[in-house]
Design goal:
By secondary structure, the protein is α/β, with parallel strands linked by helices. Among the domains are: about 390-445, no CATH class; about 465-560, Arc Repressor Mutant, subunit A. The chain has 25 helices and 14 strands. Helix 4 (about 85-95) links the parallel strand 2 (about 70) and strand 3.
Length: about 550
């Protein structure tokens, strides 16, 4: 076979050589040890929570090493592409701190454009580049065309492959594939010329030289040293429309864009043998691969399942709607990615998660378990460390998009809302009332007359006369200008007049000697003022509500009794 002639027949429009193309993509000037990583999604819908995993890892590896993190859009499957998905992906990732040094970006006109010198960063615009390397593989006898007439396509679509394998008494599908593959390899130059003259499309296949009985050593940065069978499949490089498959495109792009580390899901492990062969055929240095575990969840029976796109929490946009602060989600992801993150954070509570020294060796080989309860715990911790101004800004932004009526209350008096959010903030043990911005309305509703209701009732063990006496006694001496200590001394006095214990130690020593204790009296007041058994510091609450509302609510409770 005259492979030089075959290459010219298949790719007459290609005049460049691989060396010409590589000269257009010179190595970056980066510090020693710097990593070049990428996030390379397909624009086929929303951003999956699982997609934030490889993106976060790739971003951390690049930026912790002084390297480059870029975005490449793998849009070679036009049938599956969703309009606007790429733009939505960029905006969503930016919300979660995933910002790119290079790659596909949204331009001033709202459309995708390129930032950087290693583009185009959309694979659909790189066909001419792939064809250069495809032609070289044909020229070297490492790839060949498979032509298909329309009649053959129709027949192929109508064939029941499993039935045919059974009818021909093949032991398994692999044997059937090998025979078909061998037939496809056998063609003459005259047949190629006839197909081209007739305008028949062709796919380009790699001519595999592997023996599946032999093993190739391969080191994965997460899974360690592996041995995988050699590839003997003549897999497709270019589809009949001239667009490459993932296998071919990622090899060419990672080479030209200088990728040093590839982070991808463990579902790509079966393809590693193909990629090892392809990089060898192309004469490219293999990047370092990290095949990360899938995100798992527990089903109703307690069994682990893959977090599918239909599960709550799979769509990153769900988190915005549910009111999770991006910083909370990012910190939660760090707890899943590195086993020592929580220990580090306990020692460095004031530092952002981006200061954490991410370590590949601390990653789990088994699947990470997604857990909303754990996310909520992390979220409460993160929000508790925010300032009142930060909480107000983010909560009101969420409310404007998801609860306009609540947003109007927050915006009506920003200082008032901030004073509410400031309760219990700061110090070594800040309050942890909010897991999401959606929690804010319920948490602070009693501060607004429009939302105030008495949600909790007094325990029937308490005499109504005692409750009324306690509330009346409080009102008789209540002065909003009192310092907290004076305010509390007055509550103690009311407690003692009722025959309740103002000293909890004395009460615990002999509870039968008292009708109740100061905690009970405080609860009487708390329910009257807030409508709840549990609320933030009551003195701070009264200071914010103001004397008129405190008196009105206590008086209303007395009347209701």
């Amino acid at each position: 076979m005259d492979y030089e002639l075959l290459a010219e027949l298949l790719f007459p429009q290609v005049t460049k050589t691989p060396a010409d193309v590589e000269a257009e993509y010179p190595p970056r000037e980066l510090p020693e040890g710097a990593k070049v990583t990428r996030f390379a999604p397909s624009p086929t819908g929303f951003v999956h929570f699982g997609g934030l995993f490889p993106a976060t890892i790739a971003e951390r590896l690049a930026h912790q090493s002084g390297g480059v993190f870029y975005l490449r859009i793998e849009d070679t499957d036009a049938k599956r592409e969703v309009a606007g998905a790429a733009e939505g992906l960029i905006r969503t990732l930016a919300r979660y701190g995933i910002c790119f040094d290079e790659g596909a970006v949204i331009g001033p006109d709202g459309k995708i454009t390129d930032k950087g010198n290693y583009g185009p960063y959309r694979q659909s615009r790189r066909a001419s580049i792939y064809h250069v390397f495809a032609k070289q593989l044909v020229r070297e006898g490492k790839a060949y065309p498979v032509f298909t007439t329309q009649e053959e396509l129709d027949a192929l679509n109508a064939t029941d492959k499993k039935a045919e394998i059974k009818a021909r008494d093949w032991e398994n599908e692999q044997d059937f594939r090998r025979e078909e593959q061998q037939k496809q390899r056998e063609f003459s130059m005259e047949e190629v010329q006839a197909h081209l003259a007739a305008g028949h499309p062709f796919v380009l296949r790699l001519r595999a030289d592997g023996d599946p009985e032999k093993k190739i050593p391969f080191t994965d940065l997460v899974r360690g040293k592996l041995e995988i069978p050699e590839n003997d499949e003549d897999f497709v490089l270019l589809k009949s429309d001239g667009i490459p498959t993932y296998h071919f495109a990622h090899a060419v792009d990672d080479r030209l864009m200088g990728t040093t580390h590839v982070v991808r899901g463990e579902e790509w492990l079966p393809s590693v043998a193909k990629h090892l062969m392809l990089f060898r055929y192309l004469g490219f240095r293999l990047p370092k691969y990290m095949h990360i575990s899938q995100i798992m969840r527990l089903d109703e029976n307690g069994n682990k399942k893959k977090l599918s796109k239909r599960d709550m929490g799979a769509n990153l946009d769900d988190y915005s709607r549910m009111g999770y602060a991006p910083a909370c989600v990012c910190e939660y992801i760090m707890t899943l990615l590195n086993s020592n993150y929580e220990e580090w954070h306990a020692q460095n509570p004031e530092k952002p998660y981006t200061d954490f020294p991410f370590n590949i060796k601390k990653m789990s080989v088994s699947g990470c378990l997604f857990d909303f309860n754990k996310l909520n715990d992390v979220s409460k911790n993160v929000i508790s460390r925010m300032s009142a101004e930060e909480v107000y800004a983010q909560a009101s932004e969420w409310a404007r998009a998801n609860d306009p009526d609540f947003a109007a209350l927050l915006d009506r008096d920003a200082d008032y809302a901030k004073s509410i959010f400031a309760i219990g903030r700061g110090g070594k043990k800040p309050r942890k009332d909010l897991a999401t911005w959606a929690d804010a309305k319920g948490y602070m509703s009693f501060f607004y007359d429009e939302l105030f209701t008495v949600e909790d009732a007094y325990d029937e063990k308490f005499e109504k006369s005692d409750i009324k006496a306690a509330l009346s006694g409080f009102l008789s001496t209540y002065d909003p200008t009192d310092e907290m200590s004076v305010w509390f001394d007055k509550i103690k006095a009311v407690t003692e007049r009722l025959g309740y214990a103002s000293d909890m130690k004395l009460y615990k020593a002999d509870p039968a000697a008292f009708r109740g204790n100061i905690a009970d009296v405080s609860m009487f007041l708390r329910v009257a003022v807030t409508g709840r058994l549990n609320s933030p510091d009551l003195y701070a609450v009264m200071q914010i509500l103001g004397a008129e509302r405190v008196k009105a609510r206590v008086g209303s409770m007395i009347d209701s009794l």
